[in-house]
Design brief:
Blueprint (H helix, E strand, L loop, with lengths): L5 H13 E3 L5 E3 L3 H5 L6 H32 L5 E8 L2 E13 L2 E12 L9 H18 L4
Antiparallel strand pairs: 1-2, 3-4, 4-5
Length: 148
């Protein structure tokens, strides 16, 4: 198995040291850990400013998509949904508008599905997949004695 990036490993070690876990499996992380983990040139205020902007873009995207795309959806009854995405640095902000969505007994016209996909590209691309493999290997060893 490919090794985790050294920075990912260091963050995991730092997080583990900042976390406590209860008997119910829920953890708490020391307040302020995230801010202290940032690169030296990045402040928590800068992060918050970017997060606020991304939140606004996430809200604006389905509005723009609807205003641009609803006439197309109306003109093409076979079209099931509209889709849009915006590159946000290494991340992607996306929105889908589904023509007709069943929610229990209710039908929702113009159902919006929004997402902010983190680490869609960049130097840590693939790290989450490696982390998942690491966790699954630990689970196999610790929970099943490696029986899998």
């Amino acid at each position: 198995m490919k090794d985790l990036n050294k920075h990912t490993r260091a963050l995991a070690d730092s997080l583990k040291a900042a976390m406590t876990i209860g008997d119910n499996g829920a953890t708490t992380t020391a307040e302020g850990w995230y801010a202290t983990s940032l690169p030296e040139t990045v402040t928590i205020d800068q992060v918050k400013t970017i997060q606020e902007h991304n939140s606004a873009v996430t809200a604006a995207l389905p509005i723009a998509l609807a205003e641009l795309g609803m006439p197309v959806l109306k003109a093409n009854p076979a079209l099931a949904q509209l889709t849009a995405s915006v590159a946000a640095g290494h991340d992607t902000i996306s929105a889908d508008i589904v023509r007709e969505y069943q929610h229990g007994k209710s039908t929702i016209n113009g159902h919006v599905i929004s997402a902010h996909t983190v680490n869609a590209a960049g130097p840590y691309r693939g790290e989450l997949a490696l982390a998942v493999k690491h966790v699954r290997a630990m689970a196999d060893d610790l929970l099943t004695g490696g029986a899998k």
